Amino acid sequence: MLGRIFNGSGKPIDNGPPILPEAYLDISGSSINPSERTYPEEMIQTGISTIDVMNSIARGQKIPLFSAAGLPHNEIAAQICRQAGLVKRLEKTADLLEDEHSHAHLAEQFKLHTIERVYISLTCGVPSPSQGRIDVPIGRDSNNRIRMAAIPGSLSRGRARHAASRYKVVETLGGGGSALVEWRLETGRTHQIRAHAKYMGVPLLGDEVYGGTKSMALSLLQKRVSRSDQEEIIELVSRMDRPCLHAIVLGFEHPCTGEIIKFSCPPPPDLAEIVGLLRRSGREMVTTKLCVIFSLNLMPRAKWNNLSILVYKLIVSDIDSAVA
């Protein structure tokens, strides 16, 4: 059986000779050592803290943990973890163990779902109800193999795996166009939060793959934020090149001491910046509407026309949703 030669990008070499099994080839060029792969400087903003046998890594936003479709091959797992056991990824974040016992102990905790994982996110729109539990299986999206999907009732057909997430709206932002949401995972499926948020109809802001597009975010925010902040909102949202999702707490039992330990990581600057702007702008908009209501209330009700009544009801409704 004849074969072909492919280059590093997976493309066949033009005019390459047919190859027989077990054939030896002479290849000219410099040898490549996979362990010598490097990242651009801006991608190596990752801090590593060590507690006994464990390393906790806060990776830069552009560093993937694994090679996958659409991701560079210079993954952090290959760069940093060649001698360590990789236990579990948390939306492209991982804890690394330096011996087999620790690796097995942590892996068992993930299997038993005793690991504490807390995330925060910004959503396009506000989840309703403001807190709850989503218990919907997650499997590969039949229309896009890179994307996962929440598929109700799919467990019996073997199309997906059990997935459960608890969420709570921490704060309504941008006049009701977005929300800061806390997530606690009972399971650890690939893209679990992103798929469940999309299923609820409130995809993560900046998540182009799962529907939280920039155009959707701007359509929700522009009409709800103060006019003075609209340009800055447009600029920040336009610069968003990733989902607004951050793993803020990871807690588990230490594999050697049995002590419950927690790692925490503050939100990165880009997420903190847009949260601050949406928080400020939403309050300014509510203040403006309250002033309008106050002015209307100074007017005798007998002089209110249908337009005044409509404006009053719309403003009160918007304020209720913005401060809920």
From TrEMBL:
Q: Enumerate the spans annotated as ATPase F1/V1/A1 complex alpha/beta subunit nucleotide-binding domain.
A: 47-84
Q: Which domain of life is it from?
A: Eukaryota
Concerning Pfam families, the annotation shows: ATP-synt_ab, PseudoU_synth_2
| A biological-process GO annotation | pseudouridine synthesis
Q: Which residues form the Pseudouridine synthase RsuA/RluA-like domain?
A: 101-197
Which Gene3D superfamilies does the annotation name? Answer: Pseudouridine synthase
Query: Tell me, what is one Gene Ontology molecular-function annotation carried by this entry?
Result: RNA binding
Q: Which UniProt keywords apply?
A: Ion transport, Transport
PANTHER family according to UniProt: V-TYPE PROTON ATPASE SUBUNIT B (PTHR43389)
Tell me its family: Belongs to the ATPase alpha/beta chains family.
Official protein name in the record: Pseudouridine synthase RsuA/RluA-like domain-containing protein
